[in-house]
Amino acid sequence: MGNKVVTFTEDQFNxxxxxxxxxxxxxxxxxxxxxxxxxxxxxxxxxxxxxxTLKVSTCFLEEMPEFKANPFNKRxxxxxxxxxxxxxxxxxxxxxxxxxxxxxxxxLKISYAFKIYDFDEDKELGRNDLHxxxxxxxxxxxxxxxxxxxxxxxxxxxxxxxxGSLSYMEFEHIISRDPDFLSMFHIRI
Amino acid sequence: xxxxxxxxxxxxNGVVDDSSGSQVSQRRQAVVxxxxxxxxxxxxxxxxxxxxxxxxxxxxxxxxxxxLEQKIIQIRRFLREVAFKLEPWRESxxxxxxxxxxxxxxxxxxxxxxxxxxxxxxxxxFGLIVIPQVAFKxxxxxxxxxxxxxxxxxxxxxxxxxxxxxxxxxxxSVSEILLDFLQGTGWMEKTPLFYGYYEGKELNYDKxxxxxxxxxxxxxxxxxxxxxxxxxxxxxxxxxxxxxxTPSSHYQFFTLxxxxxxxxxxxxxxxxxxxxxxxxxxxxxxxxxxxxQKRKNLTTYQYARIIFIRxxxxxxxxxxxxxxxxLIYFTTQFTTFHVKPDEFHGHHESVRFLVEYLxxxxxxxxxxxxxxxxxxxxxxxxxxxxxxxxxILIRTILLRLASLIFLVASLYKEVMCTPxxxxxxxxxxxxxxxxxxxxxxxxxxxxxIMDFLISFSLCVxxxxxxxxFSRCLKISSLEPQFDVPKNVLDLVxxxxxxxxxxxxxxxLPCMVLLKFFGTFYxxxxxxxxxxxxxxxxxxxxxxxxxxxxxLMISFFFCCLPIGYIxxxxxxxxxxxxxxxxxxxxxxxxxxxxxxxxTASMIVRFLSSSAFILTIIVILILFLYHCAQRGSAQxxxxxxxxxxxxxxxxxxxxxxxxxxxxxxxxAENKASRKQ
Lengths: 189, 674
Hints:
By secondary structure, chain A is mainly alpha-helical.
């Protein structure tokens, strides 16, 4: 960092290191990113209160190159914000990068992927969720007919109990078999 | 939202309504707790931090923390920090990944791994062969020949022959020097780069160093080192691919929806292209399904026609390979027989250069040109699109491997050509190779240089031009694309050259290392500046495991000729570390004979055919056992899948039952009230 200002206390570092998949340096690197989002407002000293209350608005978050191109960016911010507002505090910001880091375990990544795709937050990936996912992916360029075809096929493949939706178990069952998932659900810092 | 501390509502599946009786809510409660206990949903970080201070809870997946464990965690953190700092090209890989996605990045990771491999390879050879020999040359040293009284050793012959091995060259003009540099002849020939430079003696200066023994042991150990590196690499690949127990085509659309977005992408234009390609893919999957449907309804006549075409194409492929083989054989022969030292003076230098480089140019041209032909003719064969890619790939791999095999075979024919004089140099119709090992080393040296020149010119001249033309003329098909399989194959090919040639040119791995180093930056330039994003997203895992396999196969192909040469081909009498021995292998036999009796007995037993045969049988049995276990585990997976299905259905049924009972109870209550 170079400057003398203490961003985090030793206690905070320990707490963060215990609760995320980051080392001290990583946490500082993430903080640098966080600070850059809105340097005028975000203080360099991060007390516990500020880290858990000061929020950065979605429009700043979306400008980050890692998320700018991502069709699910809004959804990701929503999942990681604890009050569903899509604005993130530093804690939530750090949590997000922790999940996307390469040290995070497979199960954790899968559970967050599920949350991201579960638009209506009913713990099932229903037809609506699938339609929304496809719409995000294709930027509204698919016809209704094409989307329905794909949704039907996905349910045909993944829906084991013919309930018309994918449960977490079904989702995990397939996704944990994909060898590319880990390398793709990953954001380098 | 999905936090553990709150009781989250049950999925709203329309089965249970809130007005149901108490029994239902009890059961509902049970289901809810079941879901909660499964610990799927992690609370937010702030909540985790609070819990940590209250209960000392750690990461969602790790709970306990002892004193020792804390220490281990700290050490691990430190190591990770160091690894992060030391990881080379981290930024480059990130930039490329952001531009093209993880598939292309996997190529760069593979390239980086190859650089590590060659670095170790180079250090072994350089530290244990080149440095001792060069250092001893500078000092006054005495020599001795190991096992001088043994029947395998012919000192007098080799002394006589070594004196005849004189190079006539005049490196006066710059062009001569440059030409010699490119061909590895003239002043280059007796440098540490080639086999011929090394002495066949034990060097004594304070301590003794037996060059021949060091040479053979280091070479064998280098090969073992390569195997270990590859095994480590494919083991880590295997860990990933082990999840791939079910064929991916099973979940084609699922993968398309949930696994097509690469979270590593950061470049907006590439992301747009990626989304576009995704749309294309969805549409192509649609047409693919229709195509399969059409294929099912083929008439016998149409079916026979397809088979006929495929047979024809395969014959054509074989013909291509045959022509390639003949061309390589012909050019190698032409070069050795028509460029005798005394004929040099008659020709212009550039002619001589061209003729010298003829085999390398032929091989590179074949490798560059024939894959185009393959990709063109495979279209006629009417395969499914994804199979088409694999078939082109397999044919290209075959061509690459075959061209090396043909080269080795034609060189072998030249080396084994009889009659020979008592210095083991060909006479009459045979090429007069004073030092055939150096000659082979030169061939591989030239191939590596040619290989580098071609990839250099492709990246620096051809691709920018294509980009320019495609911009100016608005033809998008001209725009270069980053072809992952082709690039990885180039890499494997260069690596094979390194494996085949290192025995004859101990500094060849260094050249390959430099080549890879340059390639990394060239390819980065090409990926970031010249190449458009891939139309078809390339799956990282697919390439990783496939290319690890190809690398393994080519490694064993490279080991065969080297092993054969060490054991059976008589070395040159006039040069190199093995000039006094009948066979290169003899140095090992002599060393073992000098050992104490029991030790040499043990070694002799270990290398006896009876022992090796037993080992092979045991290995085969072990392999069989592993295969059996693998298939048993696959069966278990299938069973568990069924069980999962059944359990879900059971739960569903259970909810239905509960609902029914509740309704009945409610009805009863209602009727009683009435």
